[in-house]
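TA notes, week 10

Several of you asked for a full example with nothing omitted. So below is the full record: structure tokens for the whole chain, then the designed sequence directly under it. When grading your own attempts, check the secondary structure regions first.
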């Protein structure tokens, strides 16, 4: 919670949620599904999985629907969405809204200067912000 308080609420960092699912981008579908079964995940909120490369940098995202329909040994880096989209935590909320609108996003990853994920902004977060 303290991490979120350091960001202006009108920025991507202030809108993000730090509770998100991330896995290695070389993991296979079956490996990820087995790992997920062992975790205490809020499945009602799980829509997209964030991918990390070998250096723990953001390398993409995979919708859960794509994961479920993939072959059992298919690596997640073959399933990631294009284009690769992320945003810096100090980006203005207007920039966040524009990305969600332009690409019809359900989730956007917030990354630091080294492209390491800090959190995610979901479409629910955007709608809540717009309704205020």
């Amino acid at each position: 919670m303290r991490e979120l308080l350091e960001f202006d609420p009108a920025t991507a960092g202030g809108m993000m949620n730090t509770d998100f699912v991330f896995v290695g981008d070389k993991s296979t579908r079956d490996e990820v599904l087995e790992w997920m079964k062992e975790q205490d995940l809020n499945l009602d909120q799980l829509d997209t999985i964030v991918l990390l490369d070998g250096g723990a940098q953001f390398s993409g995202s995979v919708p859960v629907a794509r994961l479920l329909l993939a072959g059992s040994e298919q690596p997640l880096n073959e399933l990631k969405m294009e284009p690769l989209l992320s945003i810096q935590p100090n980006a203005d909320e207007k920039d966040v809204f524009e990305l969600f609108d332009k690409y019809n996003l359900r989730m956007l990853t917030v990354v630091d200067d080294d492209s390491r994920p800090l959190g995610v902004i979901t479409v629910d977060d955007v709608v809540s912000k717009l309704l205020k």
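The longest helix spans residues 93-103. Use that as a sanity check on your answer.
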